[in-house]
Amino acid sequence: MLDRFGARIMLRLGMFVWSVAQLFGDFVTTLQQFLVARIALGIGEALQFPAGAKVVSEWFTQRERGKPTDIFVTSSTIGPARSHRFLPCSCFRSDGEYVHHHGRAGDCGVD
């Protein structure tokens, strides 16, 4: 698919699928909905990594590829590593109801 449609289209499609799956993950109420959202999230992520590598290989010379590749790969690990500090702050719906997520609620002042 990457060679057929190109890296730009696949990156856009991957980001769109990933973003929609993230959005739907907030509204799940059953295990089946959760599994569908997580599978869609995985599909969106699976589209992005090969396309990102292709973009780096096409847009940069072999000598320049180290830093862009480092930024691309590192960002995928730093985001999840840092999100545990901010996730608890999203534990409340607009009506004030607490929603349990993974993370520590004490990080945002909730005891």
UniProtKB/TrEMBL annotation:
<dbReference type="InterPro" id="IPR020846">
    <property type="entry name" value="MFS_dom"/>
</dbReference>
<protein>
    <submittedName>
        <fullName>D-galactonate transporter</fullName>
    </submittedName>
</protein>
<keyword id="KW-0472">Membrane</keyword>
<feature type="domain" description="Major facilitator superfamily (MFS) profile">
    <location>
        <begin position="1"/>
        <end position="111"/>
    </location>
</feature>
<keyword id="KW-0813">Transport</keyword>
<keyword id="KW-0812">Transmembrane</keyword>
<keyword id="KW-1133">Transmembrane helix</keyword>
<dbReference type="InterPro" id="IPR036259">
    <property type="entry name" value="MFS_trans_sf"/>
</dbReference>
<dbReference type="InterPro" id="IPR011701">
    <property type="entry name" value="MFS"/>
</dbReference>
<dbReference type="Pfam" id="PF07690">
    <property type="entry name" value="MFS_1"/>
</dbReference>
